[in-house]
Specification:
about 230 residues; 6 strands
Length: about 230
């Protein structure tokens, strides 16, 4: 019997409900995963790689001053060394398109991040900052020109349906900063990213997802470039 050729373009994920991941949440067992690994690889990993390869190709011209790196897909295996929860597997698939030469993963600004499964998140930005990056971010927020530019960018994104996200937000501005500063909300944040508008589930099984991601990434580009310029 002839084997079916693997797809070379994104045709959609396995389903709109992440049924594999919901089953995995109930069967946190290595034997169960081994028996169903092909569902994960064929229904989610390969489509994700194809999706972000096509998205990267289309958004590359948008980032003329910040070359893009190769898309990355996170491992499904959890690091349980320091966790009370010893479940071996994540119940989501996460992947992103990075900027080239500005760090790795959540520790650097990214043009587009996609997480699907039991929890869905699609967004862009700099989700986790190390101490040096955070210092440079706060200095840029304090700077009148850079800070006001960021406020305009954030306001435009929120108006377009994007949500402001941070890995952590302080209750008060850091010590040594004016608590009445006009950009106090940004100073309290220990990182800055945006969630894209709600992803229509029907797009998960459609090539139309590519265009949707490209459109939202283009809108978020000013934030990603601002962050890349000030935190790198």
């Amino acid at each position: 019997m002839a084997t079916r050729a693997a797809p070379t373009r994104f045709q959609g994920f396995a389903d709109t409900d992440g049924r594999f991941f919901r089953a995995l949440a109930k069967h946190q067992d290595r034997n169960w995963f081994a028996a169903h690994k092909h569902e994960y690889e064929q229904g989610w990993v390969e489509p994700m790689r194809l999706l972000l390869a096509e998205v990267r190709e289309q958004i590359d011209p948008l980032f003329a001053h910040h070359p893009l790196g190769d898309p990355k897909v996170f491992r499904i295996y959890r690091d349980v060394r320091f966790s009370k929860d010893k479940s071996p597997f994540k119940t989501t698939i996460g992947a992103y398109v990075p900027l080239s030469g500005v760090g790795h993963g959540p520790g650097a600004p990214v043009p587009v991040y996609v997480q699907l499964g039991t929890e869905t998140f699609v967004g862009a930005g700099h989700y986790m900052m190390d101490p040096g990056q955070l210092t440079r971010f706060r200095a840029a927020v304090l700077d009148d020109a850079q800070g006001k530019a960021l406020v305009r960018i954030v306001a435009a994104l929120e108006k377009a349906g994007f949500s402001l996200e941070s890995f952590a937000t302080l209750k008060k501005v850091p010590r040594g900063f004016d608590p009445e500063h006009p950009r106090a909300d940004l100073l309290r944040r220990k990182s800055l990213a945006v969630g894209f508008p709600t992803l229509p589930k029907r797009l998960l099984v459609s090539r139309a997802l590519i265009g949707w991601l490209v459109k939202q990434t283009e809108k978020a580009r000013p934030l990603v470039e601002w962050l890349a310029d000030v935190t790198a």
